[in-house]
Design goal:
The protein is α/β, with parallel strands linked by helices. The chain folds into two domains: about 230 residues, Thiamin diphosphate (ThDP)-binding fold, Pyr/PP domains (Rossmann fold, 3-Layer(aba) Sandwich); about 110 residues, Rossmann fold. About 40% of the residues lie in helices and about 20% in strands. Helix 1 runs parallel beside helix 6 and helix 9 packs across helix 12. The protein is globular and about 70 Å long.
Length: about 350
């Protein structure tokens, strides 16, 4: 397997191509623009479709159309662009169309700036658009995982016929690390079992999100909730380190989890029993695993680059049974190691 130094945004495109993606529709926005740039170079080279749309709204609606025809579609953006896509994501969830959406988060609200943040958590994890839908959300924390989780996103999107997000921050998108190429590639295949291809064979298939009969729409919504419950039961992923004997457990995802890991290692060297819990899926949130830890006499510390959006989900998951502290930065600033260590020592009474 070949190893190379590459940027996180490039790893996303490589993962999509290895996963068999045959269509990319997007619009440039910092700090996600390299995804579009790399896709514009690589997709045509491999005989796959690339189109720079006139806007984010156009991008997601092109994804809807191509996905409805059974193609393996992919788009990427950042905070403001993801906001503009939310109506289309709701339509895709309502039509049960598979798609992969990569969000390289930047600081907000509004135009904000191009620094890294994790403040898209609520709009992505909670749905963002209208209606009773959810999207699977994967949270990488390395360049390698930017590729691997994009490949996983395509697998889950088609398994569950649902939009799937890869939620990363601007640091992960821009950083360069050693990267190992995947061993196997999936050939692009158009799924005709449920899609519409404008021919007699697929005439009986129906792709829609409109149900004018109230009872029919309620039945459809209830079926969606059953699907989401199945996803919660089978697709939850998390990583735990040193949680067995921990008195304090840091909870973090993305680049913040790497800062938290360094803090955990430092604290352990100082004799403090600190562990790390990293949710790798934000929906489904690893409730069962975090509740098992909450059964112990522990204090949780959420480490994030937002106003406590992850901390809120943590409190909800454990029904506020244990204390949840917050270490955070906003505006494009990274949480510092000193911040996390100071909070650990304050909680430990040191």
């Amino acid at each position: 397997m070949a190893t190379k130094l590459i940027k996180g945004n490039t790893a996303v495109v490589i993962g999509a191509l290895y996963a068999g993606s045959d269509c990319f529709f997007g619009y440039p926005i910092t700090p996600a623009s390299e995804i579009l740039h790399e896709a514009s170079r690589l997709y045509p080279q491999l005989g796959r479709k690339f189109l720079q749309a006139e806007s984010e709204e156009a991008s997601i609606n092109m994804c809807y159309g191509a996905a409805a025809a059974g193609h393996r579609v992919f788009t990427a953006s950042s905070g403001p662009g993801i906001s503009l896509m939310q109506e289309g994501v709701s339509y895709m969830a309502g039509a049960e169309l598979p798609a992969v959406i990569v969000d390289i988060m930047r600081a907000g609200p509004g135009l904000g700036n191009i620094g890294p943040e994790q403040s898209d958590y609520n709009q992505v994890v909670k749905g963002g658009g209208h209606g009773n839908y959810k999207s699977i959300v994967l949270a990488p924390n390395s360049v390698q995982e930017m590729c691997d989780y994009t490949m996983l996103a395509f697998e889950l999107a088609f398994k569950w016929r649902s939009p799937v997000y890869v939620l990363a921050d601007g640091v992960l998108g821009q950083m360069i690390e050693p990267f190992t190429f995947p061993e196997k590639a999936v050939a692009p295949v158009i799924d005709k079992t449920w899609a519409v291809n404008g021919n007699a064979k697929t005439r009986q298939n129906l792709v829609t999100s409109i149900f004018l009969d109230f009872a029919q729409l309620e039945d459809f919504n209830n079926r969606l909730q059953v699907k989401y419950a199945d996803i919660e039961r089978t697709e939850t992923r998390c990583e735990q380190q040193n949680t067995d004997d921990a008195d304090i457990i840091l909870v973090a995802y993305g680049i913040s989890s790497r800062i938290a890991k360094t803090a955990m290692d430092n604290a352990r060297r100082q004799g403090l029993k600190v562990g790390l819990f990293r949710p790798q899926t934000l929906f489904p949130f690893p409730k069962k695993q975090i509740n098992a830890l909450a059964d112990k006499n522990v204090t949780f510390i959420a480490v994030e680059m937002s106003n406590g959006q992850l901390a809120d989900d943590l409190r909800l998951a454990i029904s506020c049974r244990r204390p949840v502290e917050l270490v955070n930065r906003l505006g494009g600033n990274l949480v510092t190691l000193d911040q996390v260590m100071n909070k650990i020592k304050a909680v430990a009474g040191k």
